[in-house]
Amino acid sequence: MFVFRYINFDAKLQNLMDRVTMIGKTLLVLVLLLCIALEGEAQKAPNMVDSNGLKQGKWEKYDANGRLVYTGTFLNDLPVDTFNYYFDNGMKKAQLIYGSEEVSREALSKIFNRKGMLMSEGSYLRKKRHGYWRFYDEEGQMISEEYYDEGKKVGVWKVYYYDGTLNEETSYEEDKKSGPWKQYFTDGSLKLKGMYRNGLLEGESMYFHPNGKVMIHGSYIHNLKHGKWFFYDEEGVLVKEQEYRMGKPLEEPDDREE
Question: What is the pLDDT of residues 49-58, one digit of tens each?
Answer without folding.
Answer: 999 999 999 9
